[in-house]
Every structure is written in C-alpha cells, then in structure tokens.
Design brief:
Rossmann fold, Elongation Factor Tu (Ef-tu), domain 3, 6-stranded mixed beta sheet, 7 helices, single chain
Length: 417
C-alpha cells in the first residue's frame, strides 16, 4: 500500500490539531477509550463540545515541559493509503520545526483561519514548503462556520494566496473550504457549502498522485555501514548497508564506487536477510558486489555514466536554527551530508530571503534564528552531491556546531561548483 507523508503548517490557533483530530476520528484511527478520554477532558475544561485538539495535546504538553519533541507524528490508514502526519508547531519561533516536518513530506497542508485570511506565518510556511521542494500544497481555509460558510470570503482568500503562490515553486496547488471542528469537507461533503463541488480533504489526500515525485533516474546509494557477520555460516559474506537515495538498483547492474572511481557489478541485494530483485527509494537494503573493493561509510554507489558532482565548494540555501549564535562568514562548522561527515567553512553570505515579499536582502553579514539565506561553503573533503531540486537526499545537509554538537542549520544545495 502506498504511503503519503504530509506536514501541517499555519499560524497559531488556525486549527491544525483539531483538523488532525478530526481526520483520526473520522478515519476510525483512534480507539474508543481515547475518544472517551478526550470527551471527559473536554467536559472537565468546560467545553460544550468534544475538543479534538486534545488528541494531539499529549505531545504539546510534553513540549511545554521542556522535553524536546520538535514535531508530533501521527499515523493512520484508509483502505487506499497509509498516512504519516507531521504536526508542526505554528509559532514563529518554531519555524525550524516546520523545516524538520516538511523535509520528508510529499504534501504540505497549510491552514488559514477564514476570519484572519493569509497572515505572515501562512506565507512563511508556504515559502519553506516551496524551498523544500514539497510538490503538492493544499490551502485549507478553516473555520468556515465562523464566517457563515460565505463563498465570497473563501474566494477572497483563494485570490490573495494565488497571487502570492505565483512566485513560489509549487507544481500542484489545491484550495479547500473546511470546518475541522464540525467536520465540514474533511472526510464528507458539507451540506453547509453547496457552492463547493471539489473533493473532500481525505479524498484529495487519498488520490493525489505522488509517483512522479521520486527520482528513479539518478541511482544513488550512500553507504551507511559495511556488513561482515563473521559467523561460521556467513564467514565470506560482505555487504554494504544503507538507504537507496535515488534511482533503482538490480542484481547484475554496473555500478561505480565514489570517490575512488572503481567500477564493479551488483552480485545481489538483500532486505531483512532475504534476496530481492530490485531496490528503490526509500528502501533500506544491503548490496553485495562482485569485486572486493575498499568501501567505507560515506562512500556512494552510482551508475558509471550518471554520477553526482564531486566538489568541495557548495552553494546552498540554509535555514538557521540557533538562537544563541548567528551564521557568519569565516566560521567553521561540522557538516553531515547523507552518511558522510566533514568540516565546512562559511566563505560567503550572498543574501537573506524575506519570506513575506520573497525579496533578497543583499547587505547582510549574518543570519539569525529562523532566517533563510543563500550561502557558500568550502568543505575539508570532497562531497558527493546533487542539486536539491533533483534529489532531496543527496541535495541536503545539516550544519553542526562543533563546540556544542547542536544542529544549527539545514541546507538545500543549489549549485555545486
């Protein structure tokens, strides 16, 4: 069964938790005792309705206690598809958490309050989804019940967001008028909005086509570990474990090992100890080769005639995560790219991106918390990279502060020189 990963985004109190609660309830993904607990909690807090936001409140409370749970993940399934929801916080100081949630998402669900319309966080989250190459964007105009299900109000918001989204790199944009609290157009069509003849939210999530989003052309396999069981039965077994980052691999394929450049063939592919006939993203497998080659963690298998760029100079967009220190030219960070670690020096800061106007502030000398900018880095070792728009795995990296071991930035590679 196909899996769809989607991230929820939007400003504080736009109803993200209520919407997730509604999806879980109406798709029968919660147990009766969970529902009874939420009903009791709703009554205890004085609500005259079942507050579905309480279904995700367990993690919200943990976050308030200072436990680091950046993104709350929820799982549910229908007969058509499995789903993983990344519930990202709406507050501006948690923009970095939105980056985490959207980085693996196929689709981003941006909620706006029908009363307030498009606000700064709506734009900010949409820009981040676009930068992260989330191909499908759904704008849910929530709380339609509080504007008397007014079609005119919905059309105003659609027009305003369409004008803004024209500047974004989004392939597929969908608009839905909903009320998460009452369930209007979430899993069933709403009798309160007869003027809307599009799909419900769940129908759209079940049917949106994501098959073309994965890169099955550029074969990339970053080696995570060398597997030598050394048991009596497998004394001559040697395999390379990792997750396929692009393309397809089959026994008999010609492959090249980078950075050494040695060519060989795939002898076999194992998953969970059993041989398989092919592997493609995001399969985690062990690949066996016909030749004994010196391969270690951080090396990459690819096609001889389709290789990533080998470079020490990287041009990228980064989102800065750290509130204590700023990104500044001349500083050195640890860089993690696929399975490889190196050190990287910041050699240039070209501009900071204004997420409201999408204009470029070119006179800046640093990036602060949650700011996005175009930078250049020089690494201590050659990196095996692709542009992010071509491959989200080999085109991304994180920067780590060497003194505190904190992740201080996430980056998307734009150009490899």
């Amino acid at each position: 069964m196909e899996m769809l990963r989607f991230a929820t985004a939007g400003s504080v109190d736009d109803g993200k938790s209520t919407l997730i609660g509604r999806l879980l309830l109406d798709s029968k993904a919660i147990f009766e005792d969970q529902l009874e607990s939420v009903e009791r909690s709703s009554a205890d807090r004085g609500f005259d309705y079942t507050n579905l936001a309480l279904l995700t409140d367990g993690l919200r409370a943990e976050r308030e206690q200072g436990i680091t749970i950046d993104v709350a993940y929820r799982y549910f399934a229908t007969p058509r598809r499995k789903f993983i929801i990344a519930d990202t916080p709406g507050h501006i100081q948690y923009t970095r958490n939105m980056v985490t949630g959207a980085s693996t998402a196929d689709l981003a669900l941006v909620l706006v309050d029908a009363r307030n319309g498009i606000v700064e966080q709506s734009r900010r989250h949409s820009v981040i989804a676009s930068l992260l190459q989330v191909r499908h964007l759904v704008l849910c105009v929530n709380k339609m019940d509080l504007v008397d299900y007014d079609e005119g109000r919905f059309d105003e918001i659609v027009a305003e967001f369409s004008a803004f989204a024209a500047k974004l790199d989004v392939d597929d944009l969908t608009f839905l008028p909903i009320s998460a609290l009452n369930g209007d157009n979430v899993t069933t069509h709403s009798p309160n909005m007869p003027w809307y003849d599009g799909p419900t939210l769940l129908h759209h999530l079940e049917h949106v086509f994501i098959g073309a989003d994965r890169n099955l052309i550029d074969s990339r396999f970053p080696v995570q570990l060398v597997i030598r069981p050394m048991s009596h039965d497998h004394h001559d077994y040697r395999g390379y474990g990792g997750q396929v980052a692009g393309g397809t691999f089959r026994p008999g394929d010609d492959v090249m090992v980078l950075p050494s450049g040695f060519a060989t063939k795939i002898a076999g592919i194992d998953r969970l100890g059993k041989p398989v006939e092919e592997a493609f993203p995001p399969d985690s497998v062990t690949i066996r080769l016909t030749d004994q080659i010196d391969i270690s963690r951080g090396d990459m298998l690819c096609r001889p005639h389709n290789q990533p760029t080998v470079t020490q100079d990287i041009s990228a967009q980064i989102c800065w995560f750290n509130s204590d220190r700023k990104f500044e030219v001349g500083k050195v960070y640890a860089i993690k790219h696929t399975t490889k670690w190196a050190r990287a020096k910041a050699t240039d800061l070209l501009y900071r991106l204004d997420v409201n106007s999408l204009s470029r502030d070119e006179g800046v000398d640093s990036l602060g918390l949650n700011e996005i900018g175009r930078v250049k880095l020089r690494t201590t070792q050659p990196m095996l990279v692709d542009n992010y728009e071509r491959n989200r795995t080999t085109g991304s990296f994180i920067l780590v502060d060497e003194s505190t071991f904190e992740t201080v930035a996430a980056g998307m590679i734009i150009g490899a020189d």
